[in-house]
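Project outcomes to date are best conveyed with an example. Our students and postdoctoral researchers have been running inverse folding experiments weekly, and each run begins with a structure described purely in tokens. The record below, which covers 276 residues, was selected by the lab manager from last quarter's runs and is presented without edits.
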């Protein structure tokens, strides 16, 4: 008489594919952990340093590195025996960087600022003529201002321009600021420091990491602006919120400035920026 199969014997064939899938997923997760660990160590590391970083044994990490080398994601230096990111990893990185459009990435931040704070907000980039608005969001009851997409802002008297002036170390940026200062009427120049006005503004922005203005660029309007950095650490755009001075807290440590800086930091992180 044939022996009746045990319940586990009946289930084993059906369970095997599921176990294999779980094993493949776990293997892929470990491989990605090793690859990300190598990236976070600067893209180059010894086997022991990488194993310590990811919390796995050197023998296990070595096995995964061998597979990653076969796929071109990792390479090994023949002299030092250190591992570094391979060509395929670099190509993936280049493709990802091409998608890191600050305007697209900052759009959710604009929507959140508009909805949470009920303020007008925009993203600006540095154009040939100066800081230029490229994306604009208004609340349900907008503040009447004569700026829209395409508007070029002041380098010296707008919060947006001051961020570019303070944090984008380019000769053309300073040249625009100097030309603007030379052409400004006396009452506007009186708002700035008499000695080294441009350098004073730059130092203030660098110390705060952002810029605020009250009734300087537009009468009755205050604004807060914070930088967006790309993966190289270069300032690529500025996120700005503005509102009527009477109901807009432009304090550097106020809730609006904190929210703008928080959104700018989050958007910068999405573009690959890692401070420090």
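After processing, the design step wrote out the following sequence:
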């Amino acid at each position: 008489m044939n022996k009746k199969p045990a319940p586990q014997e009946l289930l084993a064939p059906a369970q095997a594919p599921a176990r294999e899938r779980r094993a493949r997923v776990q293997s892929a997760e470990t491989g990605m952990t090793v690859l990300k660990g190598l990236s976070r160590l600067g893209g180059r590391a010894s086997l022991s340093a990488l194993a310590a970083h990811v919390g796995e044994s050197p023998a296990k990490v070595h096995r995964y590195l061998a597979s990653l080398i076969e796929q071109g994601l990792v390479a090994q230096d023949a002299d030092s025996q250190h591992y570094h990111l391979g060509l395929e990893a670099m190509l993936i990185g280049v493709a990802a960087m091409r998608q890191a459009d600050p305007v697209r990435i900052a759009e959710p931040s604009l929507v959140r600022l508009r909805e949470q704070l009920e303020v007008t907000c925009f993203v600006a980039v540095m154009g040939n003529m100066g800081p230029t608005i490229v994306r604009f969001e208004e609340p349900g009851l907008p503040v009447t201002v004569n700026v829209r997409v395409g508007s070029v802002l002041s380098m010296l008297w707008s919060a947006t321009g001051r961020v570019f002036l303070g944090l984008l170390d380019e000769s053309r940026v300073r040249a625009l600021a100097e030309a603007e200062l030379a052409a400004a009427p006396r009452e506007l120049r009186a708002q700035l420091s008499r000695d080294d006005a441009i350098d004073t503004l730059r130092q203030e922005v660098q110390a705060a990491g952002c810029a605020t203005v009250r009734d300087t660029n537009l009468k009755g309007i205050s604004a807060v602006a914070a930088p967006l950095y790309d993966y190289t650490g270069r300032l690529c755009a500025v996120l700005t919120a503005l509102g009527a001075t009477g109901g807009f807290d432009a304090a550097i440590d106020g809730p609006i400035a904190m929210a703008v800086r928080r959104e700018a930091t989050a958007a910068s992180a999405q573009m690959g920026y890692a401070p420090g």
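The mean pLDDT is 84. Residues 7-40 form the longest helix (34 residues). The training component of this project remains on track.
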